[in-house]
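Hi support team,

I submitted a single chain yesterday and got back a structure, but I'm not sure I'm reading the token output correctly. Could someone confirm the output below corresponds to the sequence I sent? I've pasted both exactly as they appear in my results page.

Thanks,
R.
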Amino acid sequence: MKKINITKIREEIIELQINYFFTSSSFEERCFTISNELANLDFKTKIFYNENELESIIENSIILENLFKSKVERIGLNTDNSVINYLNMLNVIKDITEEKTANLLIDITTFTHETLLILIKLLNFYKKDLGKIYICYNGAKEYSVNEKNEDDKWLSKGIKEIRTVIGYPGFSDPTRNNHLLILFGFESDRTKRLINEFEFDNVTLGFADEENSIQANHQYINAKRHEKLVSEFKTNTFKFSLIDIDSVKDNILQLIRSEKYKEMNTVIAPMNNKISTIAAALAAIEDENLQITYAKPSIYNVSGYSTPNDDIYLCELNLQGNTNYN
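Hi R., thanks for writing in. Yes, this is the structure output for that exact sequence:
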């Protein structure tokens, strides 16, 4: 994973010879950070947006469309209907595969976790008909900017629905104990709800240490909340990176294949940044026994969710290109 200042991202991308650029509209300012730098480059752009959510998401998708002007298409999604999302993204990718060797760049910053997971699964399935696939990510400089007190900072609250992500059904043996692995972020409220809803025999609560975090101030808050939850629920712990996809994937696989967990049904809930979410996807693609679940938030901190950082993370995505699709 390469860390690049935003002012250098354009020249980096030009060298990659990108044919298609995927991005997602959001209520967050961060949905514009990378796109602003890449406007007028010679590629085709696909803008995904959740048309059932806030009006600002739709408005921002139109702003993004006008930014790229030509060779651009908006694709409507629906956060309440993952099947529609799957089908709409499938159609986009199938069209691209007709070119056989198209190179893709995906700004993963403001996709929902569930949509991103489905997208990665589809790209893996069609990898043999695609060229190189790159991802870029703009981390947040600050979260919950409308709250000054650390204890009051929040990104989302409540859980509207818990569902298995399409493409990641896993394998469940009713004779085995159940293990819930959470890649924890800021969201204590949703994490508590998830643990209580599942009532699993074993819970592992992961967090990112300072060395593998994007912002030290975020990690400090995360660590404090993680410690409190571990004490409250008597969970096991697990460290993971927010900047290295391959290491997170390997650590997840090592954990679930360890002597302690290898005879359990493991469900993973990626609730931290999009880099670690992709790592969870790749782990589940490699080990199809691993199920991924998504807890859809009830509300977001729309007025103060985040401010963009000046750095961009960029890497090529190494997919297996599996032909087996669940």
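A quick pointer for reading it: The first strand starts at residue 2 and ends at 5. Let us know if anything else looks off.

Best,
Support desk
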